[in-house]
């Protein structure tokens, strides 16, 4: 709902702005699809544990890597919607979006290292995610006013 509302608010008939807004919306759609696969694999791992415990380790590693890869699409959403709203949002809010997107991209690059558990670089992803959470709250308030 948020992404659709933001796309509608940012759609102004300008080719550059509209393209960035569509990139942001596509990032949200892909993020949702990837997260759905992650959750489906987690349910599969839980079901597999009852039948064959050896298959659970592989499924769990796959969910960890996909969850890290999910950050790529979240970063694309941040990048697209921030670039599309540069003339609407304050400068600090744009910086928050761009820095958070960069942190999420950097963290997702370490996805393979998180297959066996949490890697030390995962904290960068957490900081990027917290930046995204603040970014979305501020954007929500801006849309309501």
Textual characterization of the structure:
- This protein is mostly helical and 145 residues long.
- It has helices spanning 2-10, 15-51, 54-84, 91-108, 122-144.
- Helix 3 packs antiparallel against helix 4 (91-108), helix 3 crosses helix 5 (122-144) and helix 4 runs antiparallel to helix 5 (122-144).
- It starts with a helix and ends with a helix.
* Percentage of residues in DSSP E strands: under 5%
Q: What letter string, H or E per element, gives the SSE order?
A: HHHHH
List segments where confidence is low: pLDDT < 50 over at least 5 consecutive residues: none
Number of domains: 1
Q: Structural class, from secondary structure content?
A: mainly alpha
The number of distinct helices, counting runs of at least 4 residues, comes to: 5
Name the shape in a single word. Answer: elongated
